[in-house]
Design a protein that fits this description.
The complex is a heterodimer.
Chain A lengths: L2 E3 L4 E5 L4 E3 L2 E3 L5 E7 L5 E6 L10 E2 L10 E3 L8 E8 L6 E3 L3 E6 L1
Parallel strand pairs in A: 2-11
Antiparallel strand pairs in A: 1-4, 3-8, 5-6, 5-9, 7-8, 9-10, 9-11
Chain B lengths: L3 E4 L2 E4 L5 E7 L6 E7 L5 E8 L5 E2 L8 E7 L2 E6 L8 E8 L9 E3 L3 E5 L1
Classes of the chains: A mainly beta, B mainly beta.
Chain lengths: 109, 118
C-alpha cells in the first residue's frame, strides 16, 4: 500500500522566514512525488514534481529515499505563498495518485 | 479529515455507452467540487469545477457536452462520460471543498475511478 503523510495541518511563519513543509511517504516501488498547491478560492495546481528537479516560485523539494521524505522548502516565505499544499505520490503504473492530508501555510506580514 | 466517496472505483464499459461517476461528501457540505483526470505517470489535470446549483466551469480543451457534470446538492456531484471512446479511458478523481471551520478552504479528494472503455 502507498501512503503519504504530511504531519503538519497548519504552518504559520512570518514573511521572510524560511519554510519547510514536511512530507513522508510509504511505497514499496520507486515513487514519483509531487507537490500541489491550492490558493484561496482557486483550483488545485501542480507546484512541482521530483523528476523535474526544478524550482517553482522559489520552492524546492528533494526526494530522500533513505528517509522516505519529500519535504518542500523555501528560504524566504512571501505572503502570497499562503495556501494549502498537498504532497502526492504516484504508483509505478501511474493509475493511482495518493495525496497527503495537506498543510495550510500561513505567511504573516 | 473529511471524507469524499467516489463510486464506482472501477468501471469497464463498451464504446459508445455512457458512464456516470458519483462523488459524495460524506460528512460535510461541499459547495464546490472538482473533477480531475489523470493519465498514466502524469499529474492530475483539472477538468472542471462544479458549484452546487449552477453550471460547471470547464477548463480549456475539455468538452462539456462529452463530460456532463451535475452538482444538484451540497453532498453530491456526478460526472457522466457520454458516448465513451477508448481514448476516454483514464483515472478520474473528484475532490470537494469543506464549507466550514478552520481550514475551510481545504479540499478533500475521492479515491478515484478507473474507467476503461473497450
Amino acid at each position: 500500500a502507498q501512503r503519504v503523510t504530511q504531519p503538519e495541518k497548519l504552518l504559520s511563519v512570518f514573511k521572510g522566514a524560511p519554510v519547510e513543509l514536511k512530507c513522508n511517504y510509504s511505497y514499496s516501488g520507486s515513487p514519483e512525488l509531487f507537490w500541489y498547491v491550492q490558493y484561496s478560492r482557486q483550483r488545485l495546481q501542480l507546484l512541482l514534481r521530483h523528476i523535474s528537479r526544478e524550482s517553482i516560485k522559489g520552492f524546492t523539494a528533494d526526494l530522500n529515499k533513505g528517509e522516505t521524505s519529500f519535504h518542500l522548502k523555501k528560504p524566504f516565505a512571501q505572503e502570497e505563498d499562503s495556501a494549502m499544499y498537498y504532497c502526492a505520490l504516484s504508483n509505478n503504473a501511474g493509475n493511482m495518485l495518493t495525496f497527503g492530508g495537506g498543510t495550510r501555510l500561513m505567511v504573516k506580514p | 479529515g473529511a471524507v469524499v466517496s467516489q463510486h464506482p472505483s472501477r468501471v469497464i464499459c463498451k464504446s459508445g455507452t455512457s458512464v456516470k461517476i458519483e462523488c459524495r461528501s460524506l460528512d460535510f457540505q461541499a459547495t464546490t467540487m472538482f473533477w480531475y483526470r489523470q493519465f498514466p505517470k502524469q499529474s492530475l489535470m483539472l477538468m472542471a469545477t462544479s458549484n452546487e446549483g449552477s453550471k460547471a466551469t470547464y477548463e480549456q480543451g475539455v468538452e462539456k457536452d462529452k463530460f456532463l457534470i451535475n452538482h444538484a446538492s451540497l453532498t453530491l456531484s456526478t460526472l457522466t462520460v457520454t458516448s465513451a471512446h477508448p481514448e476516454d479511458s483514464s483515472f478520474y478523481i473528484c475532490s470537494a471543498r469543506d464549507l466550514g471551520g478552520l481550514g475551510s478552504t481545504e479540499a478533500f479528494f475521492g479515491q478515484g475511478t478507473r474507467l476503461t472503455v473497450v
